Amino acid sequence: MFEHLDAIVLARIQFAFTVSFHFIFPSFSIGLASYLAVLEGLWLKTGQQRYLDLFKYWLKIFAIAFAMGVVSGIVMSYQFGTNWSDFSDRAGPVIGPLMAYEVLTAFFLEAGFLGVMLFGMNKVGKRLHFAATCMVALGTLISATWILSVNSWMHTPTGFEMGANGQFLPGPSWWAIVFNPSFPYRLMHTVTASYLTVAFVVGGVGAWHLLRDRGNVHARTMFSMAMWMAALVAPVQIALGDAHGLNTLEHQPQKVMAMEGHFESHPDGAPLILFGIPNSAEKRVDYAVEIPNLSSLILKHDLHAPLAGLDTIPDDEEPPVGIVFWSFRVMVGIGFAMLGLGAWSLLARFRRKLYDWRLLHRAALVMAPSGFVAVIAGWITTEVGRQPYVIYNLLRTADAASPLDAPAVAASLLAFVVVYFFVFGAGVWYILHLMAKPPHAGETGVKRGDTGPIRTAGITPGPTQNPGDSDVLPRRKEDAE
């Protein structure tokens, strides 16, 4: 049944499917790790129990999201060798060391302190536990830094030399590779998106519990913190997105042409097309709703600045305009919706109605998953807009794939779809189950197993002073049973 399908298209779909699943969890865990550090820091500074309760409440959710992010990321690494062996062979000398640096720095840092963060609150001092939480948060940021450096290099490759066998080899300075032209913009834009994603999830959970119990102190704290984040960071994210767009215009102009829907060049100022249906066959946007000259003002800061269109690009180098055009609008639309909700929360706070306006709470609940949609839409805009290249202007996607038949790729794709929806669907359901429960005083945090490690010999440890502690091991085997 797969004989007439394109193996390269199937390989691209498989990687897009797995990376979309994976991207959801790191975008959540990066921001959530920093939020946990803030909560624990506030608890240490103020001594207020509500911050500790919220820390333990979100720590359970973080543990699951972090685990699913690690597992889903491992699968993608294997695909470099199975579906994209030519890419791995040619680009390996550059991207291989960068990904190894992630393991040597971020993974080791997280692995060293994650156990202390999850299970060590009653085992180590408060300050040492807070340091462990900060190290985990730092590890997630370092991981994002290396991965986004690799991804950015594929968009704006610099600092390399071409080997005689067609390999991309590191040049005299690794810094030119790591700090390639698009890396700073992509890093700031993506990390800020992660923080906003977590802010709207936390705000949505807080709004959910406020709708059920307006007097819940923990829900009030969550909602207030999240709305501060939305109000202050959403405008920053829009500014960062604008800077990132200008950088993209400089280095990847055809991606911006596809985002804007500019099939034709505009020598006297380009319109901003708000909506429409891109028609790649006829090289136009049907039913376009546009504002004259506004695109030139945004991209060139001049109403009458000329902008080139896709008519200056060979047809075989055009990205899929329809996908890029609409994914970009989804991302931008959600960004402005976040800005609007943040401004609404400021008005409610100014009128001392932040916990009383139920319509605001319902809007925050609806917006809870918006960050995930925005980051996936942004990733689609970035990656599909780079096509038909996997390394921009240097290595085409068709030349990077492994010599596989379509049935082989399709079979693994179907297996991934089934397994992912079953495994990660169960994980997401459990996270939602935890979120549905209201936070309360005396949250227990992450619990160890009831019996601890299995022992075949030796003395079973006795009970600690606090039988209700989540870290307590049973005194006897009979107690565990």
TrEMBL record:
Localization (cell): Cell inner membrane; Cell membrane
Region ranges (Disordered): 442-481
Molecular function, one GO term: electron transfer activity
Topology of the protein relative to the lipid bilayer: Multi-pass membrane protein
Parts of the chain that traverse the membrane: 15-36, 57-78, 98-121, 128-148, 192-211, 223-240, 323-347, 359-380, 409-432
The entry's keywords: Cell membrane, Electron transport, Heme, Iron, Membrane, Metal-binding, Transmembrane, Transmembrane helix, Transport
Single Gene Ontology BP annotation: aerobic electron transport chain
A GO cellular component entry from the record: plasma membrane
Bias (Basic and acidic residues): 472-481
InterPro entries: Cyt-d_ubiquinol_oxidase_su_1
Main localisation: membrane
Pfam families per record: Cyt_bd_oxida_I
Family under the similarity heading: Belongs to the cytochrome ubiquinol oxidase subunit 1 family.
Protein name in the entry: Cytochrome D ubiquinol oxidase subunit I
Organism: Aurantiacibacter luteus
Lineage: Bacteria, Pseudomonadati, Pseudomonadota, Alphaproteobacteria, Sphingomonadales
